[in-house]
Design brief:
The complex is a heterodimer of chains A (315) and B (52). With 315 residues, chain A is of the alpha/beta class. Chain A contains ten helices and eight strands. Helix content of chain A is 30%, strand content 13%. In chain A, the strands form two sheets. In chain A, strands 2-1-3-4-8 form a five-stranded mixed beta sheet. In chain A, strands 5-6-7 form a three-stranded antiparallel beta sheet, with no helix packed on it. In chain A, strand 3, helix 2 and strand 4 form a beta-alpha-beta unit. The longest helix of chain A is centred in the C-terminal third of the chain and has 15 residues. Chain B has one domain. The interface between A and B is medium-sized, with 24 and 21 residues. The complex binds iron/sulfur cluster (SF4) (2 copies). One iron/sulfur cluster binds next to helix 7 of chain A.
Chain lengths: 315, 52
């Protein structure tokens, strides 16, 4: 993956120099290991601060909402699907964008790495499929496939679905993978077990809303949790309020979620927020044959009606 | 909702035209019977002093 960056910088520089874009949205090195952060590059002298490795999991479509400038944006498979969704939902105009596609081989889950060590991780580097982790007095090599984010292990759209420039050749997509094992396990539970499962899942939630803020779909000017007139949901840490927040947010993402994993990545207490949205993604696939952001010219299932739509739940 | 543990049957959807009064009565009877059979709801309950 390390070879990617020269190409990304070269394309970004060209786009800026030619005046085709006013800024390029990409990643720069974060102040902590495994935490690359989004950056806006506005002149070609700055392209050297752009980086690319397996710590670029943040979804950059989140930074496009309602922008009016001409923008070059770096897009992994999942970012590109959220860009498609943004275009469908009129949150950005296609002709304002130059999409720099970056075929992706999965992003690292930093929690999987820190869980292996007692001491602080100071440096993480990678070469091919080997990730080297260093700290005070230790150094260890890990296999990248063992430390991927859950959603990346289950991803079948690593190549961007929409792009103008391609940084590197397309990669082979993962095939024959079990994408919804977690969800099937929950589906097999009794109602009480299900209730308890989610109760335990969200028990540590502090309602910081980092998951919502990291999500490119959550662009409402005032989120329902922030409204006070009317107040849709209690603002407390009560378990009922926490649950209401989570399941309502998941519903707002139904048929739109691309499973980019930004929510899980952002959560400071490590809640598997995707357990809510994945079920809806699975249902959309089973019932409507739909995956969000893959087809630029089709409306999502929940804003269209087709005579064949499943309606068995209506009595 | 059922996925996160609300019992099947506690939540119902029906399509009833304003002219279908008899269907409305039937559905209400049906739903009431199902919910009664399920017993009191223990989920989504919040103590009065916590309501803010
Ligand atoms: S979800 Fe797919 S495209 Fe997105 S970071 Fe993971 S592997 Fe890459
Ligand atoms: S990021 Fe985590 S702790 Fe914060 S609101 Fe979301 S689930 Fe709760």
């Amino acid at each position: 993956m390390l070879g990617y960056i020269d190409k990304i910088r070269e394309i970004s520089k060209r786009l800026l120099d030619e005046g085709r874009v006013e800024m390029v949205i990409g990643f720069r090195k974060g102040t902590m290991p495994m935490m690359n952060e989004p950056t806006f590059v506005k002149n070609s002298g700055e392209v050297s601060k752009l980086v690319w490795d397996s710590n670029c999991g943040i979804n950059l479509a989140n930074y496009l909402t309602d922008r009016k400038e001409k923008i070059g944006v770096i897009a992994k498979g999942c970012d590109s699907r959220n860009i498609v969704t943004h275009i469908l939902e009129n949150k950005i105009k296609r002709d304002k964008l130059v999409i720099i596609g970056v075929p992706c081989k999965g992003m690292i889950d930093r929690r999987r790495i820190t869980a292996v060590f007692d001491a602080e991780v100071r440096e993480v580097s990678e070469e091919g499929d080997t990730v080297t982790v260093k700290g005070a007095g230790f150094e260890k090599k890990l296999k990248k496939s063992d430390i991927l984010q859950d959603n990346c292990s289950a991803c079948i759209h690593r190549n961007p679905v929409l792009y103008d420039e391609l940084a590197v050749p397309l990669v082979e997509e993962q095939k024959d993978i079990e994408r919804y094992a977690d969800i099937r396990r929950i589906e097999a539970m009794s109602p009480q077990e299900k209730w308890q499962y989610f109760e335990d899942l969200i028990a540590p939630c502090i309602r910081c809303y980092a998951c919502r803020n990291a999500c490119p779909l959550c662009y409402c000017p005032t989120c329902f949790v922030d409204e006070s007139r009317p107040q849709w949901v209690g603002k407390s840490q009560d378990e009922t309020d926490i649950r209401t927040f989570h399941f309502l947010r998941a519903y707002h993402c139904a048929g739109r979620c691309t499973d980019c994993g930004a929510c899980e990545r952002a959560c400071p207490v490590g809640i598997k927020v995707r357990q809510f949205t994945s079920k809806l993604n699975k249902d959309c696939l089973d019932m409507f044959g739909w995956e969000a952001g893959v087809l630029p010219d089709q409306r999502p299932p929940l804003d269209t009606f087709k005579p064949g739509d499943p309606g068995d739940f209506i009595k | 909702m059922e996925h996160m543990g609300v019992e099947p049957g506690r939540l119902s959807f029906s399509w009833i035209s304003s002219a279908e009064s008899t269907k409305f009565v039937d559905v209400v009877k049906d739903v009431t019977a199902t919910v009664k059979a399920l017993g009191p709801n223990n989920n989504f309950k919040k103590a009065a002093d916590k309501v803010a």
